[in-house]
């Protein structure tokens, strides 16, 4: 097959792959939690006398020049073009209604002009008052993408920031994955110098270590999404869609690879005390969100747990994220925390599993 034919077939291949990813995550045929997040080892000390008005607890958080009603980010989700468009519209409605941040999935297909994936100006019209984050893959930065493509990703949805997602494990185990990663850090540095909006660097489920976070901050990246292990295992997802037993076995061996989310948050905060940290990866509910904030996150991201509701309707997505916010508020109330600053200092109980828990500030 000629290179021209390969390029012609590539868009439909990418769309089909992303549709497969969505089906596998929704079906829960892969466990998605081969490693614990570490949140299970963190337990708040209950305050039986909170001396607070529940409804006046302040969950607000500033992010990218806007004030969120709660410290939540609807993390990047993806799918084939038609499904992605529906999901993005529902999530934008939910984000605007609840005044929380929203990140789109990979914009590669849209950037290359093959389908909009619901990623147009209508997304900003649906969510005019909340931060929206664009998204491209780090591997594309050494495969031809540069400032023009990044600007296109930002401009098509009038984004407040651009996510560069790091997924080396997924690419390594994926059939036909992008395995050329030399020069990615330099490419991120070049983008940061040229783009008119902040860069956010995130993993996709294997975690960012303190050492890698420090390298990113040294080139000027100030927002890091740890996206730790304990949520969707993309190695397990790729094992599900592998074309043969050999590729399936190779991918499956790495289904428990990564830095648990709780440990990643703690370590990135230790190595990069001034960074803005997004804690994501296996965040199931508002209590996990509270624990992520206590460990050092400034904002908490959730993706897979809200995916089924997002595909269903905007109302279902609103209901889902409303419950997360209410659970977070209850955690604040029952720790006597009037706001997020107080929650970050809330007392914790020693745990029988303390040997497996991250050290706490």
Structure description:
Its EC number is 5.3.3.2. It catalyses: isopentenyl diphosphate = dimethylallyl diphosphate. Homooctamer. Dimer of tetramers. By secondary structure, the protein is an alpha/beta fold. The chain has one domain (15-356): TIM Barrel (Alpha-Beta Barrel). It has 15 helices and 10 strands. It is globular. The model is unreliable at 1-10 and 29-33 (pLDDT under 50).
Please give the number of β-strands. 10
Strand order of the largest sheet: 3-4-5-6-7-8-9-10
Order of helices and strands: HEEEHEHHEHEHHEHEHHHEHEHHH
Shape: globular
Total separate domains? 1
Mean pLDDT: 89
Quote the CATH topology.
Answer: TIM Barrel
What is the radius of gyration? Answer: 20 Å
Secondary structure elements and pairings:
Elements: H1 3-27, E1 61-63, E2 66-68, E3 72-74, H2 81-98, E4 101-103, H3 108-111, H4 121-126, E5 132-137, H5 147-157, E6 161-166, H6 168-173, H7 184-194, E7 199-203, H8 210-218, E8 223-225, H9 234-240, H10 245-252, H11 261-271, E9 276-279, H12 286-295, E10 299-302, H13 307-312, H14 314-333, H15 340-343
Parallel strand pairs: 3-4, 3-10, 4-5, 5-6, 6-7, 7-8, 8-9, 9-10
Antiparallel strand pairs: 1-2
Helix pairs in contact: 2-14, 8-11, 9-10, 12-14
Give the tags.
TIM Barrel, globular, 8-stranded parallel beta barrel, 361 residues, alpha/beta
In short:
The chain is α/β, with parallel strands linked by helices and 361 residues long. Helices cover 43% and strands 11% of the residues.
């Amino acid at each position: 097959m000629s290179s021209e034919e390969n390029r012609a077939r590539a868009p439909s291949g990418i769309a089909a792959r992303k549709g497969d990813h969505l089906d596998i995550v929704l079906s829960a045929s892969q466990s998605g939690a081969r490693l614990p997040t570490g949140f299970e080892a963190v337990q708040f000390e209950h305050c039986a006398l909170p001396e607070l008005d529940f409804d006046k607890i302040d969950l607000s958080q500033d992010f990218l020049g806007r004030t969120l009603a709660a410290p939540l980010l609807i993390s990047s989700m993806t799918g084939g073009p038609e499904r992605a468009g529906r999901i993005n519209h529902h999530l934008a409605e939910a984000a605007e209604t609840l005044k929380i941040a929203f990140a789109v999935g990979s914009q590669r297909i849209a950037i290359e002009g093959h389908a909009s994936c619901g990623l147009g100006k209508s997304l900003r019209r649906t969510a005019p008052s909340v931060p929206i984050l664009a998204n491209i893959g780090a591997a594309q930065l050494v495969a031809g993408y540069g400032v023009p493509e990044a600007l296109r990703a930002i401009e098509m949805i009038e984004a407040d920031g651009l996510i560069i997602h790091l997924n080396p494990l997924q690419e390594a185990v994926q059939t036909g994955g992008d395995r050329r990663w030399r020069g990615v850090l330099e490419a991120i540095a070049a983008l940061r110098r040229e783009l008119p909006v902040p860069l956010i660097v995130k993993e996709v489920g294997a975690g960012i270590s303190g050492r890698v976070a420090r390298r990113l901050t040294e080139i000027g990246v100030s927002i890091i999404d740890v996206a730790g292990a304990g949520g969707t295992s993309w190695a397990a997802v790729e094992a599900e869609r592998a074309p043969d037993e050999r590729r399936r076995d190779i991918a499956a061996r790495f289904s428990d690879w990564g830095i648990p989310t709780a440990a990643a948050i703690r370590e990135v905060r230790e190595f990069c005390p001034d960074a803005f940290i997004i804690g994501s990866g296996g965040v199931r509910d508002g209590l996990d969100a509270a624990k992520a904030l206590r460990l050092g996150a400034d904002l908490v991201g959730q993706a897979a747990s809200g995916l089924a509701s997002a595909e269903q309707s905007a109302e279902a997505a609103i209901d889902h994220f409303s419950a997360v916010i209410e659970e977070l508020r209850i955690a604040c109330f029952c720790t006597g925390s009037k706001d997020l600053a107080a929650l970050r200092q809330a007392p914790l109980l020693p745990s029988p599993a303390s040997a497996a828990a991250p050290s706490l500030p």
